[in-house]
Each structure stands twice: as C-alpha cells, then as structure tokens.
Amino acid sequence: MKVIAGLVEPDEGLISIPPNARMSMLHQDHYRHENDKIRDVVMMGNHRLWGAMVEKDKLLEAGDFTDEIGMKLGDLEVVIAEEDGYNAEGEAEQLLEGLGIPKTDHEEPLSTLDSGIRLRVLLAQALFGDPDILLLDEPTNHLDMDSIRWLERFLHEYKGVLVVISHDRHFLNEVCTHTADVDYENIIVYPGAYDMMLRQKMSYRISEEKQNSAKKKKITDLQDFIRR
Q1: Cross-strand bridge partners of residue 144
Q2: CB distance 80 to 49 below 8 Å
Q3: What is the C-alpha separation between 99 and 39, in angstroms, rounded?
Q4: Contact indicator for 158, 78 with CB cutoff of 8 Å
Q5: What is the pLDDT of residues 67-93, one digit of tens each?
Q6: Is the separation of the CB atoms in 48 and 75 below 8 Å?
Q7: DSSP E strand stretches across the chain
Q8: Which site in 29, 140, 196, 223 is 20 to 30 Å from 174, CA atoms measured?
Q9: Burial of residue 126, with CB atoms counted within 10 A of its CB: 0-12 exposed, 13-18 middle, 19 or more buried
C-alpha cells in the first residue's frame, strides 16, 4: 500500500495512476495535527482545497488589496469552487458525526481526544472530498459497531477505487468486490469478498492436490513398469 501511495519506491515493476486522479490514504500518525482544530484536520484531506483556503485567509488578514492581490484572490476562489469548498465544513461535520464525534467537539484541537478517537478523525480526513482512489489500512480499528456500520454504508456509495487492508472478516465481506490473497510470495486476485476468496482458494488447493496425487501415481506406475 505504501508503494501504491508513493511513500516507498518499488524494487521493480511500475505503478500506473491516472495523472489527474486524487489519492487519499488513511494515516495513523495522530500526533501530526494535534494542535489543529478537529474539523480543520478533516478538511486537510483535500490538499488542493485546504491550501487555497489557507492562502486566501492569509491574504485577507494582510489587508493589502492591490490589483495583484485581487487577481490572486480570484484565482483562489476558482480553486475553492472547483473543490466544492463552500460545502466543505458541512461535509467534514457529517463525516465526524457519522464516526461518532459530536459537533460540540469539532472546534476543539485534536489533542483533546483520546488516541483511539483521534484515529477516527484521521479516517474522516481520508474520506473527505470524494477522492478518486482511497487507501485504507485497518480502518475499523477503534470504531464501535455503529461507526463500522456507518463506514460500510459510506463505502457502498463510494464511486472511486478502494484498496483496503483489514483483519475484520465481516467488514471485508461487506465492502470488497475483489480480494487479493498474498501467499507464498505470490498475489492472486479473486473475484468476490473474503469468504468467497476462501472458498475459491480451498477449491483450487484441493484441485492442485488431486493433480499432484495423480502425477505421483503416474510416476510410480512408470517406475514399476521400468523395473519390470
């Protein structure tokens, strides 16, 4: 997953991602934003939007409204509009409330939350802004049952490419359309969710064992024939 996200260089092979696709990844470092407001941490998930919003606020605070600054503000407004920035706060709040973080906490710094609850904020950050590619590593950690069911419903409606790693078998069965099984230095992609993958894998292994048994019998018969 780190190779796909560009955090680790591959030893060999190529990673091909459409140039205009926006990728979002669940980060587990909950100390990174501990001094930022919880709602702001979520909106940081869309880097283009957040960068434009921060720069706009700085220019407005400076109060130096030259023609050049006016043009720059106009450009920033275009970016904010393209990224649906005028609905950003509402979207961030919906994600947080869906993951069990009440609206009364949204203006507080991230440091006010326990470490497990902070990871819910980082999950909301990854989901924010309708990314084209979504990478989730153990997203159900520190979620209660209501939050897990909410996340499943959210991912059912998600239209982009989802890559998820999880030990939660029920969650995988709910959200996955394909399952990549990494075993014996090979990756085999099976259609269907976890349980379907398991049945196909078992069937494949039984078939392989039967073929191997037939080969061994044939070898034994040939050796007996040669000895005779």
Answers
A1: none
A2: yes
A3: 13
A4: no
A5: 888 899 999 999 999 999 999 999 999
A6: no
A7: 23-25, 133-137, 161-165, 178-183, 186-191
A8: 29
A9: buried
> Cβ of 87: how many Cβ atoms within 10 Å?
10
Contact 172, 194 (CB under 8 A): yes
User: What are the beta bridge partners of residue 191?
Assistant: 178
What's the pTM value of the predicted model, to 2 decimals? 0.82
Cα distance between residue 158 and residue 127, in whole Å: 9
Classify residue 10 by burial, with Cβ atoms within 10 Å: 0-12, 13-18, 19+: exposed
How many Å apart are CA 212 and CA 218, to the nearest integer?
Answer: 10
Write down the residue that tokens 């039967």 correspond to: 210
Q: Is 26 left (phi over 0), alpha (psi -120 to 50) or beta?
A: beta
Q: Which residue has the tokens 């407005």?
A: 60
Q: What does the alpha-carbon distance between residue 148 and residue 99 come to, in Å, rounded to a whole number?
A: 8
